Amino acid sequence: MFPGDWGDYSHLYELPFVEHLSWVVLALNRQEEVRDVASSSDPQEAALEMLRQRDEVEDKPQHEAFTDEEVLTLIYSLNRTMQSMVTYGRSISSLLQDVREYNNHDSLFKAIRMVRTVIGCSTAMRHLARAQIRSDKRFFKHLQAAFKGPSKKPMIGLEPMRYVLLMLREMGLNDLSEKDLEHLMVDLLKVYPRAPGAAKNLSAQYQRSKKIKTI
pTM for the complete prediction? Predict the structure, then answer.
């Protein structure tokens, strides 16, 4: 996983989100707890109950196969990709998949905005090398802007909504009506403000999220 210097972890951003999360679970030596949750009669409720009791979770040593530096970089990179999920509605690995399949530089720059070390992964380096050979000034202008990080413009509290939409997708809930979606997001979860046009706006976000190939 980590050949060479401990700081060389940009390749983690190319891992599918579930695989990335799995490595973190293993590094933290929490695989037994995950197995217990998965084998329970109601895994979702078991996971929620674990979160409710998180202050009582007993500390344990990390997995012996992982160094402190490896655990740190795994957790940090997972944190950044989850932030990407609530900022852009996609994980960093999903954005990079878009780059590989469609040469979508907008997705590449979004990933770099979220975390600058993405520039070191193989997908980013291929496009960087190509732009260098072609003296692509437009590419490097956008790259320079991406290195400034995410926009500081307030997202009007939409981050929780984006995350919920991803979870609905992962749970296979792809056919909610406008009314049901509004009730869930506005009344129950309170991740979207009650306002005129809320149902239509939520429905548009919902339909858009379903078109993304992978989180």
Answer: 0.83
Is the separation of the CB atoms in 176 and 184 below 8 Å? yes
Continuous segment of H or E residues that includes residue 111: helix 105-114
Task: Report DSSP state, residue 56.
Answer: G
CA distances from 19 to 93, 132, 208, 215 (A): 10, 32, 24, 12
* Helix axis angle, 68-88 to 17-27, nearest 10°: 150
For residues 17 and 215, the answer to whether their CB atoms sit within 8 Å is: yes
Phi, psi of 102 (to 5 degrees): -125, 5
pLDDT digits (tens, 9 = 90+) for 66-111: 988 889 999 999 999 999 998 888 999 999 999 999 999 999 999 9
Length in residues, the chain? 215
Is 93 in contact with 13 (CB distance < 8 Å)?
Answer: yes
In sequence order, what DSSP letters do the residues of 80-101 get, joined into one string? HHHHHHHHHSS-HHHHHHHHHH
Q: What is the token pair recorded at 100? A: 């590989």
